[in-house]
Amino acid sequence: MSEEIFKKVVSHAKEYGFVFPSSEIYDGLGAVYDYGQNGAELKNNLRQYWWKAMVQMHENIVGIDAAIFMHPKTWKASGHIDGFSDPMIDNKDSKKRYRADQLLEDKITRYEKDGKTNKAEELQAALDQALLDNDLVQLKMLIEQHEIACPISGTRNWTDVRQFNLMFSTEMGAMAEDADKIYLRPETAQGIFVNFLNVQKTGRMKIPFGIAQTGKAFRNEIIARQFIMRMREFEQMEMQFFIRPGTQKQWYEYWKEARLKWHKKLGLGDDNYRFHDHVKLAHYADAAVDIEFNFPFGFKEMEGIHSRTDFDLRNHQELSGKKMQYFDAELDENGKPYGNYIPYVIETSIGLDRLFLATLCASYKEEEVGEDDKKDTRVVLALPPVLAPYKVAIFPLTKKDGLPEVAREIMGDLKLDYNCFYEEKDAIGKRYRRQDALGTPFCITVDHESLENKTVTIRYRDTMKQERISISQIREILAAEINWKNLLV
Ligand code: GAP
Fold first, then answer.
1. Which residue, 79, 97, 263, 290, could crosslink 276 as a Cys pair with Cβ 3.0–4.6 Å?
2. Is residue 189 in contact with ligand 1, taking CB distance under 6 Å?
3. Torsions phi, psi of 296, nearest 5?
4. pLDDT at 185 (0 to 100)
5. Burial letters 322-357, b for 16+ CB under 10 A, else e
6. In the prediction, which pLDDT does 224 show?
7. Cross-strand bridge partners of residue 328
8. Measured from the CB, is residue 187 less than 6 Å from ligand 1?
9. pLDDT tens readout for residues 162-207
10. What is the 8-class DSSP label of residue 91?
């Protein structure tokens, strides 16, 4: 995957109704995007893949849908008011703002690309240490030492490095004077923590158990880049797994492996994943690892797995004055109940938009088709069939002779179970190409022979093979391929 391909993926996403810049008629809004008609379908399907794997397939994990707005004390307890910031630096000539650590990460990637492995490793170690120590002066020194220039002005005329809180705030209440300052949640996790006892009691959940949710999160990212990779409004899919204190190592390893397996099942290429252990731990974690994906611009974080200890529940207990404890009636090795304790937590947290981007990048293919003077290039999205926006496209070969009626009848039979696309216009080859570009795994063409013997042509996206089958076989063929089983079992 190259950066050249990335540019193509971005324009493909726009041209085929997957992703549009937000409020584009007003020239867009930085790092905010809208999902179009095909993007919304793909995103829904990816969300479902996560929900089915995490909630439906686990008896001890349930899902909730908490509000975006939360009591402001939530963010004091979680540490976001005091500690959720990024180091920023401004270029005095271009007046552009950057994340200091990101400038250094980019330099490391450049060193790696140029084969300067030692330099890359040396800088990575220095960066990790500076972040660990929260040493803003050292970050500036590294930027100077490695002669990093502003990509816009080309100068090295930098301000000092400062901290910048990433939470968006707004006001709640009708009158500005007595309005309360509240925040747009920067992570969905806190909606789970504050509901821990509600869910545990009403669901009679026994430790170990998990609470999952998907939903929007908001961060005022200093720099917006790489399309939907880093956005100011994005979607997270998070699961908090509540466990006995002392068992966190075992469950951390369990979820690391389980989540990697889930990613690999998507079929985007096993070599495209790697773990990256955190050296600088977030304010709530005692161990953390990223699952990185090989995006066209290099390996970058897709999912985080964090051992969050009892940090969140303990702080909520302190600030709210409400007990956040669990009574464990099971007996320990001495035959005594474990009793009351604040559970420890292992969190899995994945960005849906990043998953979407990874899926799009890895599925995008340009293939040479045809022979000799009829050579052509086709663009195909080789998505797992169950994730494709449309599962099947139905085409009458012509608009007359009763062919549309037969095609409509087939569509009527399938559309309750599968998202179907119907099209009568243009040459059949052109219609096939458009579906390839959307990732539709099957096209069904109704022709004159269909009227005589109730058969159609089925065309397979990946092989472009066409087969004559009877109309009564369609469902069986679709069911074998468009099946969650292929991903979940
Ligand atoms: N509750 C833990 C948490 O929020 P995080 O590592 O800050 O951890 C988790 O975020 C995931 O959310 C990341 O791995 C990434 O996939 C996604 N994510 C974070 N910031 C994002 C952004 N600005 N745009 C898109 N996705 C983002």
1. 290
2. yes
3. -60, -20
4. 98
5. eebbbebeeeeeeeeeeeebbbbbbbbbbbbbbbbb
6. 74
7. 339
8. yes
9. 999 999 999 998 666 666 899 999 999 999 999 999 999 999 999 9
10. B
pLDDT of residue 400: 94
Q: Are 350 and 50 in contact (CB under 8 A)?
A: yes
Give residue for tokens 């549009």: 20
The number of beta carbons lying within 10 Å of the beta carbon of residue 467 is 12
Q: Is 22 exposed, middle or buried (0-12, 13-18, 19+ CB in 10 A)?
A: middle
The pLDDT assigned to 55 comes to 98
Specify the residue for token string 């972040």: 131
Ligand 1 atom nearest residue 187's Cα: 4
Residue 234 in contact with ligand 1 by CB distance below 6 A = yes
pLDDT tens digits, one per residue of 275-314: 999 987 877 789 999 999 999 999 999 999 999 999 999 9
Q: What spacing in Å lies between the alpha carbon of 247 and ligand 1's midpoint?
A: 25
Q: Residue 414: which of 466, 480, 483, 471 has the closest Cα?
A: 471
- Is any ligand 1 atom within 6 A of the Cβ of residue 305? no
Atom of ligand 1 nearest to the CA of 188: 1
* Probe residue for ligand 1, chosen from 235, 349, 356 as the CB with the greatest number of ligand atoms within 8 Å: 349
Residue 178: the pLDDT is 63
| Residue of 211, 284, 354, 359 to mutate, ligand 1, most atoms within 8 A of C-beta | 354
User: What angle is formed at CA 176 by the lines to CA 173 and CA 182, rounded to 5 degrees?
Assistant: 55
Res. 269 pLDDT band, cuts 50 70 90:
very high
Centre of ligand 1 to C-alpha 371, Å, is 46
Query: What are the residues whose beta carbons fall under 8 Å from the beta carbon of 88, sequence distance 6 or more?
Result: 97, 98, 99, 100, 161, 162, 163, 164, 222
Report the Cα 210 to chain-centroid distance in Å.
20
In this structure, the residue with its CA closest to atom 18 of ligand 1 is 351
Contact 363, 5 (CB under 8 A): no
User: What predicted TM-score, i.e. pTM, was given to this entire model?
Assistant: 0.91
